[in-house]
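Hi R.,

As promised on Friday, here is the backbone we talked about, encoded as structure tokens. Could you run it through your design pipeline when you get a chance and send me back a sequence?
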């Protein structure tokens, strides 16, 4: 499949997905880091950008991997593992709506394939950290606490009153780069020597 056919398919999927997600989940849903990864993929393909693919790989791939493990564990074992894919088994959502979320499985495969083809861009951690901070700030200041998008309101969701909401938010700003982005960066450096 040529890259332009794939880019067209991803673009059409996103254009199809947007109104359906807005209607069912609201605009704020697009601030989920996984959705950001989906949106990064479109220009990455059209521009054939190793930087954008590298950003997605180091900042979003680990979360997509966790999503995929959680989903398949529940699908095949029948028990909840982490619960992040509970909505995929919620009968109040149509099967069609739930099936749209299977992009969590497909999009990371695209990242891997094109990173192998194009190589890893060593500037990715800097840009991905800034992107992650922007997304977390937007999430914290412009989404509902009950949605708990990107886990910015996790202490409230878990009723952990001893953890200050702002301290938790600041912790996320530090933790995402330190725990996800930079370790993945060093892994990519070793894989793409």
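Update: got your reply. Pasting your designed sequence below so it's all in one thread:
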């Amino acid at each position: 499949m040529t890259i332009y056919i794939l880019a067209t398919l991803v673009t059409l999927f996103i254009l199809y997905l947007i109104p359906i997600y807005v209607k069912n989940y609201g605009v704020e849903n697009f601030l989920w880091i996984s959705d950001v990864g989906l949106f990064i993929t479109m220009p990455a393909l059209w521009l054939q950008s190793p930087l954008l693919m590298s950003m997605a790989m180091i900042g979003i791939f680990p979360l997509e991997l966790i999503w995929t493990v959680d989903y398949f564990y529940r699908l095949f074992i029948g028990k909840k593992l982490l619960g992040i894919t509970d909505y995929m088994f919620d009968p109040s959502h149509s099967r069609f709506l739930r099936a749209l979320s299977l992009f969590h499985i497909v999009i990371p495969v695209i990242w891997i394939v094109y990173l192998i083809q194009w190589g890893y861009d060593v500037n990715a951690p800097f840009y991905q950290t800034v992107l992650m901070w922007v997304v977390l700030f937007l999430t914290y200041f412009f989404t509902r606490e009950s949605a708990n998008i990107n886990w910015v309101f996790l202490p409230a969701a878990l009723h952990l009153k001893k953890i200050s909401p702002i301290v938790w938010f600041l912790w996320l700003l530090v933790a995402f780069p330190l725990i996800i982005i930079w370790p993945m960066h060093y892994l990519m450096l070793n894989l793409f020597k």
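One thing I noticed while checking it: The longest helix spans residues 165-191.

Thanks again,
M.
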